[in-house]
Structures are given as structure tokens and as C-alpha cells.
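Fig. S4 source data, part A: sequence.
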Amino acid sequence: MVRPTGDRVRESWMSIVHQILPEARVLDLCAGSGALGLEALSRGAVSCDFVEQSPKVLSALRENLERLGGHPEAHLHRDDAVRFVERLPAGAYDVAFADPPYATETVQQLVACWMAVPFANVFGIEHSSSVVLPAIGETRRYGSTSLTFFRAPS
């Protein structure tokens, strides 16, 4: 089951990163419907890798992409998000989004991976507001949902 990012949260997410999206290499982890990556592509990102573990959800994402006319630099990966980022070098992406299921340890695992090897210059992750992440991130709360952004040192 896909728990889509709410419109208010997605708009906030995009308003935070909109200036760095043109020409950006984007990663959409736990992509679900692909709304975040698709929005990034529509705002000028040059590429987006969508990572989703569920074959059924990945099929729906593929259909969403085709309905929108496709994008030559949109790549779909059926993989576990943590396993995917563990193989990435530092700075592999300009922007990474993650919207993992709330009832898993994936939020903490993805943040730990980014802290060990900052695979994106900016990494934003959606999570339950009850989850506390390292203070080096900037957290914005929207009721029971929070977005935390981590930025790689320049």
C-alpha cells in the first residue's frame, strides 16, 4: 500500500529545494507513486532514479511515468532503499528524497547511510514527527509528519 505524501508536505518539500532542482541529478527512495521525483523532473531536474521495492508499486510508478509521456532520464530500480544507497559514492546525486514506511527502521537506516557516506548534496526524508533524527539535520514539522533535510559540507 502506498502512503502518498500529502499535498501540503510535498509543496513544502519542493519549496525548500526548488532552487537546486534545475539540472539536478535526483534520487527518489521508497518512491511509491513517484510524485516527488516526477515533480523534480517537471521542475528541471535532468535525471531521476526511482527506487521502490514492491513490484506492484513499481508497476504503478511505471504507468504514471508513461501516462506523463515518459522521460528519457527517468530510471526505475526494484531494490531495497537501504541496500541501494549502501552502494553509492559520496555526491552521487544532487538531491535525494526518501519517504519510507513509518512503521519500519528505514528512516534511521537511511540517515545513518547518508551520515556515513553523503550520497546526495541535499537529502530530505519524510518521517513521523515522533521520530527524532540527528541535530545536524533541519526538521520542519507538519502535524504528525516531519521533513528533515541534511546538507553535505561544501
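Fig. S4 source data, part B ends here. The longest strand covers residues 120-128.
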